[in-house]
Prior knowledge:
The protein has twelve helices and no strands. By secondary structure, the chain is an all-alpha fold. It has a single domain (2-251), classed as MetI-like fold. InterPro entries: MetI-like, MetI-like_sf.
Amino acid sequence: MTSFKSLDEIRESNLLLPPQSWFFGGWVKAWDQAxxxxxxxxxxxxxxxxxxxxxxxxxLAVLVGALNGYALTQWKFxxxxxxxxxxxxxxxxxxQLYLIPIAITLRELxxxxxxxxxxxxxxxxxxxxxxxxxxxxFVTLPPELMKAAVIDGAGFFRIFFYIILPMSPSIIMVxxxxxxxxxxxxxxxxxxxxxxxxxxxxxxxxxxxxSTYGVKxxxxxxxxxxxxxxxxxxIYLVAGKFFIxxxxxxxxxx
Length: 254
């Protein structure tokens, strides 16, 4: 409600009450006028920068994780269980533990402070999770289908793209939701390794809300917060049923 109030009404009324007169100036300013550092273009350009990182990172993390998961269900080799344990550990290790090694690696590769470096970082960070999700789902699929495809002459990638993936929409949606929200809501990586002038939206929101100069415009802050939350809210509303279905049909089995 606060985002739809004028500053005068916010100062004079209870924050929990609905607005006496609906005011959309806070939303307009948050979108393309609020100051983020030295630039006063609102959150709009930072949305574009965020999706330029989120979409490639999402596609790569899901695709590589699906390929890894399928390979782990088909090929049993010495140390495969140890590899799965390592992937599980990689999912739950705090990222603060390897901020410095990441910085050194990106610097040596010459991609520190670039959007490409951030995409690569999110891809590598998301692959352990997607690999485990897809591996635990693929082991529940009937092995007779893969054997029949092999007899018919289908190779690894043909089986994967034409048989396995079409049978896995639920777990794909689970992976998409988890990776999308993880990349989109990222703050530490964006702030530490992001490209100057092209900060993702969460870093921009932090600059808007925690600004220490000028008048504290609570309606603009609330509007900016709601604007940044809309994409993840939309994803969960549209794909929520697939998320639950994927989790209950094998995503947490092993």
